[in-house]
Design brief:
This protein has two domains: 83 residues, Cytochrome Bc1 Complex, Chain D, domain 2 (Orthogonal Bundle), CATH 1.10.760; 68 residues, Histidine-containing Protein, Chain: A, CATH 3.30.1340. Helices cover 52% and strands 12% of the residues. It is built from seven helices and three strands, in the order ααααααββαβ. Strand 2, helix 7 and strand 3 form a beta-alpha-beta unit. Helix 2 packs across helix 5, helix 4 crosses helix 5 and helix 6 packs across helix 7. The chain starts with a helix and ends in a 5-residue tail after the last strand.
Length: 177
């Protein structure tokens, strides 16, 4: 009877001392082991980890959209589901995504505000205008149907809670005719 108790205790002690290999890896470790090959150098247009400009357009998807892309992959690009490491649990992919976003300067509040502004523009039937947001400052870029649509876009952006200023780079389509 004592032997039956001693063996599991010995096994548990060994697992505690040497690790069981089942612990989740940190986001940084997953990045280094699985993601760095492409994201350090920007292989095949992968956004580079230390280059916020590579991520800026992707920030518009927000964290959840970027996480979805990492887990499911992006058709037509080199980004395979889970970077091709299909055995990775979603939680570890999320850790790597969070690590990359933090290194790129992603601010979840800015992403949420940009999403809110895009939704306000859609409600005002203003489509095709790019929205960037940094610390409450919103930049609108694109082409709108006419000068009234440009004014509507700016007003819709200003009406979003938390927006402190709007830079308008939206031009009426007539300018290009």
């Amino acid at each position: 009877m004592k032997l039956a108790v001693a063996i599991p205790t010995f096994v548990l002690a060994g697992l505690t001392l040497f690790g069981n290999g089942f612990a989740a890896e940190s986001g940084e470790a997953i990045y280094r082991d699985k993601c760095a090959l492409c994201h350090d150098a920007g292989t095949d247009k992968a956004p580079r980890i230390g280059a916020p400009e590579d991520w800026k357009a992707r920030f518009a998807k927000g964290r959840e959209g970027l996480l979805r892309s990492a887990i499911k992959g992006v058709p037509g690009t080199a980004m395979a589901a889970k970077g091709g490491f299909f055995q990775l649990p979603d939680a570890e992919v999320a850790g790597a995504v969070d690590y990359m976003l933090a290194r790129a300067g992603f601010n979840p509040e800015d992403a949420a505000m940009a999403r809110d502004v895009r939704e306000a523009l859609e409600r005002a039937h203003i489509l095709g205008v790019r929205v960037e947001c940094t610390d409450g400052a919103v930049v609108l870029t694109g082409v709108a149907e006419d000068p009234d649509a440009v004014r509507t876009a700016v007003a819709a952006a200003r009406a979003v809670p938390g927006v402190r200023e709007v830079e308008n780079r939206v031009s009426p389509a007539a300018v290009f005719e």
